[in-house]
Amino acid sequence: MGALLAADTLHGPKVDWFALTPLIILLGGAMVLLLVAALTPAWPKRAYALFTVAVGTAAAVMSFILWDRINHQGAKTLVGDAMWLDKAGIWIAITVCVGVVMAALLTDDYLRREGIDGPELYSLYLLAALGAIVMASANDLIVLFLGLEILSLALYVMAASHRKRADSQESGLKYFILGGFSSAFLLYGIALIYGSSGSTNLGRIETYFRLNPILDHSKETLALAGVALLIVGLAFKVAAVPFHFWSPDVYQGAPTPVTAFMASVGKAAAFAAMLRVLLQGLPHWAQDYRPAIWTIAVLTLVGGSVMAVVQTNVKRMLAFSSISHAGYLLVGVEAAAHDANKGLASTGVSSVLMYLLVYTVLVGGTFGVVTAVSRTGDGATDLAGFRGLGRSKPALALGMTVLLLAQAGVPLTSGFVAKFGVIGDAVRVHSYAIAIIAMVSAVIAAFLYLRIMISMWIAEPEAGDDAREAVRVPALLCVAITLSVGFTLAIGFFPDWLIHAAP
Amino acid sequence: MIEFPILTMLVLVPVIGSVLVALVSKRYPDLVKVTALVTSVLTAGMSIWLLAAFKTNNADFQFASQHEWIKAWGISWHLGVDGISIFLVVLTGVLFPLVIAGIDPHHDHKRYLSWMLLLEAGVMGSFISLDLFLFFVFFEIVLVPMYFLIGGWGYDNRVYAATKFFLFTMIGSAFMLVGIIATAVLAKADNGHVTFDLIKIAENASFAAGTGRWLFFAFAIAFAVKVPLFPLHTWLPDAHTQAPTGGSVILAGVLLKMGTYGLLRFGVFLFPEAAVWARPLFLTLAVIGIIWGAIAATMQTDLKRLVAYSSVAHLGFIVLGTFALTATAITGGVMQMVNHGISTGALFILVGMIYDRRHTREISKLKGLQKVAPIFAAAFTVVMLSSIGVPGLNGFVGEFMVLIGSFGTARWWVVVATAGVILAALYLLWAYQRVFHGEPDEDNKSFAELKWKEGMLLLPFIGLIVFCGLYPKPMIDRIQPSVDKLLEHVAQHSDFKIPAPAEPVISNGGEG
Q1: B189 at interface of A, judged by CB pairs closer than 8 A
Q2: Cα separation of B290 and A440, whole Å?
Q3: Is B177's CB within 8 Å of A423's CB?
């Protein structure tokens, strides 16, 4: 034992630093914001946000370069087999960077409006993004857990970051307690898988179960319990029914730009991790976990859309809509589980990845509009807050309408392309029932988007409407919403290149 | 030389018009109207040119154009018209400028016109798409402008009606989308690659009977909601009653036809075996719709609701003709699609005029209008008679062809359906009697006579009602070859035998 620990035998893995540049850039950016900004006087207006946008963009650019490298040299693992450098990972990295950029654009004026301007939130965005990317490219359950914790801890603080609103504190605390609870599930699952397979490395876990198809009874029990706990832990992170209870409260209470970030980046990372764990690590158990995924997907689809119908707060509505989107993504995961032994080359994977990118942009824009409408104090997120928006801010209302129609999956928007992708894959593997349930629940969910549109365009003005604070759309927010709407329509009309690109 | 992409332009011009209208400043209301009118008239002109250039006695898809759109999924921008769709295209082209020019939405003209033009593009696209995906896109996109038109410019209960319309139709589409994907995926084996091309799938794919029937039903639900077929019709009376006049005209005139057209093109053509198998069900639902719609119409106290229920009955005839599967019956059904669009459209316009004058549509509150507005009453009479199906007017031709064509293959259904013709006379004449006859009371004394502008709006409708009623041959000549071809296709792909043509009854129309 002593010899093993001797310095000359313990040598670290060879590190391909270049392949880690997106992570390094994000980490560097976060450090600069935290340390430099703490030591210097307040930066000029918009400087924090623009710096964050620059860091996010730089990380995205590096990801594109790495993408190109994978095109030439193929995928590989990094840092002693702990992480993947593959297209799926890079795709999520780009998605996460897009989420960071959108969130930073949304946050800029918000913080000044609320009187809580400072670099902390931006720094947390970058750290959370780092965690998200680590989680999405992990090839080891421990690394995955590390990424998850970096992401989650940042999210807890972000949710509570609006110091002047009790709602925000409550949101942060709730998220923290329930999030910690779910992390425990995940960790327990990791331990049990380790107990049965002898490794935390996804590749080695896969090999072990493949080479030992018949396990003795106790090991099989361990492994199955581990799979179940891992699914519970990840289902909590993606807010799938019945593990969704935190999400409406947290979404509603968190500062609106943070909600956008949570809904997009948090979801992207958790789904990427789920794909990796289920398809790269545990394809052997596909027959066992597929029914579970099927059930969770159906519950999520139906639950998300039905519960959304009775809400009156737009942020809560969007929380439930986000749940039903998770249901759609699970439809893709379920499809992938049908030929799980192909790993990330399974049928549904590219549709899920495409959905995540599309959804990140969509949700950024949608919450951008909510940020503007919530007005000073971030409180006017009732349906009533949207009343008359079509008259007072027609362009903003039109943008919101496009985004909502896209969320509802109306053709010629990116949302339709995304849904078409996952439904197509479900049909391809003959999961007709889930495809039909998904489409019908989309109709129920459409009702909720219609309600917001009714409020904006059709509802009669009421007394006191004129006394409300006017909705302002500051420059960076306007940029974010415009980009989001533009992307939504562009992909809606010309989705070909995105479909080709999706790994 | 590159051929002028006329079909693409039929879709694009209204879209461009819609965007232009949205961009023009609110301060120039006249410019808004002129832009909308010019683009819609341009579309109408193109559709009429299309009709003029359409080759008679040619069953193929004409003016076809195909471009790759989403290559990864085998989806192409594939458009074409044949005898079944050509008149629906023309009807769409002609109806929109009339609605845009003739019917005042009362407020927010700019947004109204913008939505209207977008709606036109969607409807046009649905009728000329030859790609399943493309068709779905248009079919679905139509919901959005129609939703806003009902919700924004409708009457008191408009939000409820608009939401109901949207959700009902979307439920149907949900099944259709899964059906479309499944069709394309399953047809891959026969096509060699995934394609959503209607013609390729219809010609090459051979589905197992059970599969084909499931797929057929996935499509048929969407169309049955749209038609609407009993018992999925409950959205229609609400949507019609609450929609603004212009919206009702379009809804009855062309939107419902997307359902009946879909049943022909994407039901019978795509899944012949299943369609033949499902005939008894659809014939029965059609006949129930005819009788149910007629009885419900009789019971209505609201004039507009009455017309809405009459639509349920009329559309039942079209479905009856479609599933009777004889050349005469289907041709009659296609003609009925067009004729119903003209006469019910005109009826809605007239009801809208009554509402504008009296601010009520309650039959009991209207009385003796004939005395104070004889010309208005005359116009109403002509349109009403056309809707009843009086010989010499357009309504008769289609209905009669459906009945006579179906008699050989669906005898007992026809026997029941014929009662619907009589009921139509009952509810419309009875309504006419209550509204127009008698002495006008105090409220109705000041009912204004038909104005010039209103007359000009009605004139094309009445002209078409009379023309199509007296001389339907040009229509039949263009429709029938495509119908024959469709039946041959059905006979080839199922054990269905084309019935020997009935007596050479009405090759030159139904003057009776």
Answers
A1: no
A2: 29
A3: yes
ipTM: 0.85
What does the alpha-carbon distance between residue A51 and residue A450 come to, in Å, rounded to a whole number? 37
For residue A456, the chain B residues in CB contact (below 8 A) are none
Count CB-CB contacts under 10 A for residue A499.
18
The reply to whether A490 touches chain B by the CB within 8 Å rule is no
Mean pLDDT lowest among A127-136, A219-228, A408-417, B20-29: B20-29
| Residues in A 123-142 with any Cβ partner in B closer than 8 A | none
Q: Do A443 and B170 touch (CB under 8 A)?
A: yes
Ramachandran assignment for B509, one of left (phi > 0), alpha (psi -120 to 50 degrees), beta (any other): left
Alpha helices in A276-311 (DSSP H): 286-309
Judge whether B216 lies within some domain: no
Put simply, whether B53 touches A (Cβ < 8 Å) is no
* Cα A4 off chain centre by: 41
User: pLDDT, tens digit, for every residue of A11-37?
Assistant: 778 888 888 999 999 999 999 998 988
| Domain boundaries, position B309 | 278-497
pLDDT at residue B511, rounded to an integer: 41
> What pLDDT score does B445 carry?
82
First to last CA, chain A: 44
Going by C-alpha positions, the residue among B148, B142, B100 that lies closest to residue B123 is B142
Radius of gyration, CA atoms only, chain A: 22
Q: Which residues pair with A382 in a beta bridge?
A: A313
What tens digit of pLDDT does each residue of A418-470 get?
Answer: 999 999 999 889 888 999 999 989 888 888 888 898 888 888 888 777 778 88
Has residue B268 been placed in a domain? no
Chain B residue whose CA is closest to A435: B178
Residue B478 falls inside a structural domain: yes
Picking from A424, A439, A446, the nearest residue to B167 by CB comes out as: A446
Q: How far is B115 from chain A (nearest CA, A)?
A: 12
The mean pLDDT of B288-301, rounded to a whole number, is: 91
Residue B215 and residue B183 in contact, taking contact as beta carbons nearer than 8 Å: yes
Q: Are A302 and A326 in contact (CB under 8 A)?
A: no
Partner residues linked to B76 by β-bridges = B68
pLDDT tens per residue across span B35-45:
889 999 999 99
Would you place residue B512 in the very low, low, confident or very high pLDDT band (cuts 50, 70, 90)? very low
On whether any CB of chain A is under 8 Å from the CB of B69, the answer is yes
> CB count, 10 Å around CB of B37?
16
pLDDT at A9 over 70: no
| Number of domains observed in the structure of chain B | 1
**Which member of B144, B158, B178 has the closest CB to residue A405?**
B144
Alpha carbon distance A280, A487 (integer Å): 31
In angstroms, rounded to a whole number, what is the distance separating the alpha carbons of residues A147 and A136? 8
**pLDDT value of position B503:** 52
Report the chain A residue with the minimal C-alpha distance to residue B138: A411
Asked if A450 and B147 come within 8 Å (Cβ–Cβ), the reply is: yes
Interface check B170 vs A, CB under 8 A: yes
pTM equals 0.89
What 3-state DSSP class applies to B63? strand
Partners of A140 in the β-ladder: A201
Give the Cα separation of B76 and B421 in Å (integer): 43
H or E stretch covering B70: strand B62-70
* Angstrom distances, CA of residue B41 to CA of A241, B9, B14, B127, B457: 52, 13, 10, 19, 14
For the residues B131-143, what does the mean pLDDT come to? 91
Asked, for residue B477, whether it belongs to a domain, the answer is: yes
pLDDT level of residue B510 (50, 70, 90 thresholds): very low
